[in-house]
Amino acid sequence: MKNRKGFLIIAHGSRREEANERVYELTAQLKNYFQTDLFEPAFMELAKPSIRDGINALAARDIDEIVAFPFFLFKGMHYSKDVPNIIERAVAKLDKDIKITMMDPVGMHPQVFDLVQEMLYDQVTDQFEFKKIEPSKIEDKSMEIIERAIEDAEMPEDERPVVKRVIHTTGDFDFLKSMIFQGNAVAEGCKALLAKKTIFTDVTMVQAGVNKRFGHEVRCVLNDPGVEEGAAKAGMTKAAYALRSLGTKLNGNIVAIGNAPTALIKLVDMIKQEGIRPALVIGIPVGFVNAKESKEYLRGIDEVPYITNRGQKGGSTVAAAIVNALIKAQFMAA
C-alpha cells in the first residue's frame, strides 16, 4: 500500500508580508491544480506558519510521509543544514513515525535556464537589429535555431527530426523532455508509410494537417453516416465510437490521435482486449480532462509501437506534425 503523502512548501520567510504572499498563493494554486488539500505553506523564520506548524497540520491529516519542497534557489546552508534540523526536531515531537522526503530546490531544476532566458529575452533582444529573412528561408532558419538549442540533448538520431518538427510547430521546447517513443516507433512508422498504409485520425483537423503530397491515404470517419447516432446509443463520444467502428481495419495502419482522449482510451482497450495491432499509434491529445491519463494508459502497453508525451500538452497540430516528420524521414530515406 502506498504512503499517504503530505506536501510542505518551504520558504525562508520575510518581514515584508507581500514577499510571503507568493508562497501562500503558490500553495493555493497547487491545491487547486491537484484537487487536494494536502499542501501546506511553511517558513523557516520571520513568518507564519512555521515549518513545525506545517508538519503538525499535515500530521493531523493522517499522512505517512511528508514531501518537503524547498522554495529556494540552491543547495546552500538553509537547504543542507537549517531546514533538515528544524524538520527533524518537529517530527521527533510527533506521536507517530512519519517519513520525510526532501526534494531539490527550484534552482536545481533543468528548466531553470529556460525560465531565466524567457524573463531576460525582451531586455536582451531589444538592443539587436533584426535582419529580414526571405520567406522561403524562414523554416530553415527556425530549424537551425531549434537544432542549436537541442544539440546537446541525448536522443536517438531518428527521433530528433520528429522532436524538432513538434517544437517548430508549437514553439514549445517542453516537448524536448516530454516526448516518448516506444517500440522502435520511428522506424515502424516509416516502414508503414513506405508501404503506403492508411493514416487514420481522430478528428478532421489532424487529417487536414497531414501532408498528402506523396499519396498517403488519410482517413477520419468521425462524421461518417451513423457515427453520431451510434455513439449516442452506445453512450460514447463520437471520436471513441468512430475509432471502434473501424475495428480490424486499424491493423497494420497508423492511428494519429491529437484531440480526443476518449478515442485514445478506446484504442488502447481494443489493443489490449481485442488484439488490434496498428503499425504505429500517435497518441497526443490535448486538454485538462483525461488527456494526461489517456497517455499514461497508452504507456502501459507494449504490444504496438507508439509516440506520445507526458502531461496535458499536445493537440491536432502536434499529431499532424509528427506524421509529417515521419513522412519526410521516410521520403529522405527512400
Explain how this protein is built.
With 334 residues, the protein is an alpha/beta fold. The chain has 2 domains: 5-108, Rossmann fold, CATH 3.40.50; 135-333, Rossmann fold. Helix content is 47%, strand content 13%. The chain contains 14 helices and 10 strands. The chain has helices at 17-34, 51-59, 77-92, 112-125, 138-150, 160-170, 175-178, 185-194, 204-209, 227-234, 238-246, 261-274, 291-298, 316-333; strands at 5-11, 39-43, 65-70, 99-102, 179-182, 199-201, 218-219, 254-257, 280-283, 306-309. The protein has a 6-stranded mixed beta sheet, with helices on both faces. A 4-stranded parallel beta sheet has the order 2-1-3-4, sandwiched between helices. Helix 12 runs parallel beside helix 13 (291-298). It is globular and about 70 Å long. Residues 137-328 form the Cobalamin biosynthesis precorrin-8X methylmutase CobH/CbiC domain. InterPro entries: CbiX-like, Cbl_synth_CobH/CbiC, CobH/CbiC_sf. It comes from hydrothermal vent metagenome.
